[in-house]
Amino acid sequence: MPNQVTIENSDSYFNVEEDERILDAALRQGIDLPFSCQAGVCGACRGQVSAGEIDYGAIEIFGLLPEEESAGFVLTCSAKITTDIILKMDGNSLYTPPQSYNGQFDTQEVIMTVLSQDSVGDEIYRLTLQNEASFLYQAGQYIDVIVNEEICCPLSIANAPHVHSGVIELHIRKTHTIPSWGNWVLEQAAKKKQLRIRGPKGQVVAKNVNVRPQLLIAGGTGFSQCKALLEQIFLHKAKDSEAAVYLYWGGRHREGLYLHQQVKDWLAEYQYFRYVPVLSQAVGHDRWGGRRGLIHQAVLDDFEVLHGFDVYAVGPMEMVKCAFWGCVAKGLPKAQFYSDFLEFMDFNEK
């Protein structure tokens, strides 16, 4: 049986299913509660419980001080309820972000310690960094690893903030035929055990997870950003949601799908999740019986209409551009296509 949340000093109330978070339940039922990061860190969703019990489970909360928790304050994006509750969402219970916030965390320049560097296949390495508590970000954002005063290497953060708390995960492809700043990052990480980074950056974050179907298109190590987005979606999406989540992941060869088994494990865990891997240059030793071709074309072949979707595309610039125009041709509003390339590319011209 669901429990009920009553908003104090209003006529609003809504039901919360077992294992559903307060904010997700409210948005699902058309109750407009404030929120931003949806990761338990920014405090924008803060309310105060005057009656009833809540539970965070294993989620680590950064957006409340211990004395605030003792006074009944709660982060609705992360809390579940174990009884009916009365929730205050007005006056002093609301978080007022600083003017510089604008829905994003302030950009910082910090030195992070390298924790590990391991190969995950096809010359792709997973690098983990010790994240200081003061460095806050949203799933889908990226950092710049600083090479010198003029050059930075942008890398997507590959884990949502609640996954491996205190750690930032990066996926980097090592190249042999041409020099790359990714190679430089791997060499510096192995040699100095520290990296100077600037961030977070980027506007691509998970939106409308219980309202619209989500379509994520990843080319190669573009999967890293999609991985963080998916982890955030899995955290907040209602388990019985009818809005499906699709991941199309493209690689040249089988080893390019370097976390293929992890994605397959998600298939077994989340009934609304769909996964379509595609190889563009499969050869005999790949033993590949799945889809072949270009990843964006596989998406366009599978969907007649995309009007009601949110689409995220990460990978080589040309792939993202082809995906953008292909999805728009299938009815997707331009405002519902999300990519970091949109920040500096003119997508008004093909």
UniProtKB/TrEMBL annotation:
Question: Which keywords does this chain's UniProt record carry?
Answer: FAD, Flavoprotein, Iron, Transport
Upper classification of the source organism reads:
Bacteria, Pseudomonadati, Pseudomonadota, Gammaproteobacteria, Thiotrichales
> GO MF annotations for this entry?
2 iron, 2 sulfur cluster binding; oxidoreductase activity
Q: Which CDD domains match?
A: fer2
Q: Does the keyword Iron apply?
A: yes
Q: Which organism is it from?
A: Piscirickettsia salmonis
UniProt protein name: Ferredoxin
Q: Give yes or no: UniProt keyword DNA-binding.
A: no
**Top-rank lineage group of the source organism:** Bacteria
